[in-house]
Amino acid sequence: MTGTEHIARAAELLSRQWTTRVISEIDHNGPLPRRMAARTFTDLPRTGIHYALPTLRHRGLLTVAEHDGRTCYLLTEAGEGLGDLYEALARWSRTHHHPGTATDFVTRVEAGLELLKDRRVLTALTADQPAAPPDTAGTEPDTLTQANLAEPTGERTWRLTQAGQDLRGPYAELAAWTAAHAHLIDAVPPRRSALGTRLPQPPRTTTAFARTTTRRTT
Q1: What is the pLDDT of residues 55-91, one digit of tens each?
Q2: Which of 84-98, 149-163, 173-187 has the lowest mean pLDDT?
Q3: 2 pLDDT band (50/70/90 cuts)?
Q4: CATH node for 3-132+142-187
Q5: How far apart are CA 143 and CA 14, in angstroms?
Q6: Which phi and psi (to 5°) does residue 63 adopt?
Q7: Burial classification of residue 88, based on how many CB atoms lie within 10 Å of its CB (0-12 exposed, 13-18 middle, 19 or more buried)
Q8: Which residues pair with 64 in a beta bridge?
């Protein structure tokens, strides 16, 4: 697997259902007592909680250990390493209003990961000059132009916009995390979308990270 393929695979894995929500909660507020999980993730269905927590343990992002006399979910070293990536993605998304102006931390992070799953975007970020997007008439819009990451400078020449150039920062964070934790990425089978096992998404609320009033401002 090439470096770009590995990075795209990491972005796909990290953008899977509820990963950002759970990791961010514990990163923001510290160890999560097992008995408080349902009360903490009130925006997730109970089936989602029972799915997400053991799944993230299996993927090597969470662990269970005693903390202050209680059995808690804690971030592993790999989970803690996502903090800088999340901050970089959220900052980029907020600065460049992607996917919009009225979004929360989790939405901004997930929107950035969606871009970094796109191999064409990754190729553009690592090239001196991105190749011209293909003719998209009658097809899905090209991510580079849809997200305002690249713009034409001539008939067949393109360049990264400021948003595209700035996305290289989160890309570098993702690349560094991927290199450090490639074994975790390789251990998780690729998603098989045809199985149709994806659980329903919870509604977005403004009560995320409610265990404490101390929150990040990103």
Answers
A1: 999 999 999 999 888 999 999 999 999 999 999 999 9
A2: 149-163
A3: low
A4: 1.10.10.10
A5: 19
A6: -140, 170
A7: buried
A8: 73
